[in-house]
Design a protein that fits this description.
Layout lengths: L5 E6 L3 H16 L3 E3 L7 E6 L6 H15 L4 E6 H5 L1 H5 L4 E5 L7 H5 L10 E3 L20 E5 L1 E2 L10 H5 L3 E2 L2 H13 L4 E5 L24 H8 L7 E4 L9 H9 L6 E7 L3 H7 L5 H14 L4 E8 L6 H13 L4 E6 L17 H24 L5 E9 L4 E6 L4 E5 L7 E11 L3 E6 L3
Helix pairs in contact: 7-8, 9-11
């Protein structure tokens, strides 16, 4: 290239996507590209997509249109889960030049640089998902004090509502030594907190080499990984992004409870509070197991924050089924909910199931659980008022206030005079603010 071209990135979806977008950005930067903001004029716009909801198409189209308004001559590249599942659908979006699937994503420069991209229609490279059989390291860094570090990818589970195995392939992981080395590197670069991410991180340890159709036994387990990461002195804080309840062992919880670096914060997907729905979803646990795991967490770490994923409106979910879910969640000492309205996903078993719940009913149930989440979150936060907790200050909320999170994931707002961004300090939690944010002040205790 005679002159450096500019490239801008936009991420739709999960923390795993954010880590991978950062890795793509670094690949371009190493090749001499200038990295710009997505709302700025750029020569190339890269959109990393999600497929969790039925709004993937709408979001992708809106993002493409926005990029072309800034530069009508720009090249548009779309990758990610949506690109793997529906490459031709994306290629038909006006303005898209290149569509890359899961196994092609991290070879993006190979498709852009030698061949270029014309405006004669989108080029599509999205191979069979079985070709996505290697692990590519990625982590986010530079835009915040917290880094998302990918340790696992893909999933071997067969949940009837989920397209992730079709979009990301089989479960596979990085090696313990590589993850530890990356964590040390992030600490040396100034990161104060690392969030471990993946599709099913509790399944950590699957290799990528398959011989005669057989995958080798795991060389390490998730507990082995976190034990080694706990020794990385340059990182004061680790969090676990999300972990399946059936993979939350007593050994893992006891280790976190005694750790100086792993925060008392777990996010465990529930999806439904009744066993009939869990069976239909092909989840690998019962509500009784889930309740046991919550009980273990609170027994070992009474101050722990517990997040929960719930799906409402799954096929066959009756009014009584939903009320059972509500009552079950009400009975649990959990801290907040992420509520998802079920949406039909092509080529999933759930798409063909009977007992379709009308969309207005799905939305009504979503609202009910969001209100319950707010109630749970406020009760959890109020329980810690007048106490002191360590806070990582992460961002400027305004000219006068800084924002951050306590060790147990309570959002805190403090006066600028009380600390600095990327600093961990003890804060006394004094009062609620706007029902959600806790205002705090530095404490020497």
């Amino acid at each position: 290239m005679a002159t450096p071209r500019t490239v801008a990135f936009h991420t739709l979806g999960c923390k795993l996507n954010y880590s991978e977008t950062s890795a793509l950005s670094r690949l371009f930067e190493e090749k001499g590209y200038q990295i710009g903001g997505f709302k700025e004029v750029a020569d190339i716009y890269v959109i990393n997509t999600c497929s969790v909801t039925d709004f993937a198409d709408q979001k992708c189209r809106q993002t493409v249109r926005g990029a072309l308004r800034r530069n009508p001559d720009a090249h548009i590249v779309v990758t990610g889960c949506y690109a793997q599942l529906k490459p031709q659908e994306i290629a038909d979006i006006p303005g898209v030049d290149l569509v890359l699937g899961a196994s092609e994503k991290f070879r993006m420069l190979d498709y852009i640089e030698p061949f270029g991209m014309g405006k004669a229609g989108a080029k599509v490279y999205a191979g069979d998902i079985r070709e996505a059989n290697t692990f590519t390291s990625s982590f986010s860094f530079g835009d915040r004090t917290r880094s998302f570090l990918k340790v696992q990818d893909g999933c071997d589970y067969k949940c009837t509502f989920c397209t992730i195995p079709m979009a990301r392939g089989a479960s596979r992981s990085n090696g313990v030594e590589d993850v530890v080395a990356q964590a040390r590197q992030l600490g040396e670069q100034g990161a104060r907190e690392i969030v471990l991410t993946g599709v099913n991180i509790g399944d950590f340890g699957n290799g990528t080499a398959v011989i005669e159709g057989i995958r080798p036994k795991k060389e390490a387990l998730f507990i082995d990984l976190i034990r080694e990461l706990d020794k990385v002195e340059s990182i004061p804080r680790f969090r676990i992004s999300s972990i399946e309840p059936n993979l939350v062992t007593r050994e893992i919880l006891e280790f976190i409870a005694g750790s100086r670096r792993f925060m008392p914060h777990l996010h465990m997907p529930l999806q439904s509070g009744n066993n009939k729905q869990l069976r239909e979803m092909k989840r690998r646990y019962t509500r009784e197991l889930y309740a046991e795991r919550v009980r273990w967490i609170k027994e070992l770490m009474p101050h722990a924050c517990i997040g929960v994923d719930v799906i409402v409106g799954f096929p066959g979910e009756s009014h009584e089924d939903f009320l059972e879910t509500v009552r079950f969640i009400e009975s649990l000492p959990v801290s907040y909910l992420h509520v998802f309205t079920y949406s039909e996903r092509p080529n999933t078993p759930a798409e063909q199931m009977k007992g379709v719940v009308p969309m207005p009913v799905r939305k009504e149930r979503n609202t009910t659980l969001r209100l319950l989440s707010r109630k749970k979150q406020r009760a959890f936060q109020e329980a810690f008022l007048q106490s002191t907790r360590s806070v990582l200050l992460e961002q400027d909320k305004s000219e006068r206030m800084l924002g951050g999170y306590t060790d147990n994931y309570i959002p805190v707002c403090v006066p600028v005079s009380e600390g600095n961004v990327n600093e961990i300090t003890n804060i006394r939690l004094e009062q609620m603010h706007d029902d959600l944010i806790v205002a705090g002040y530095r404490s020497d205790s």
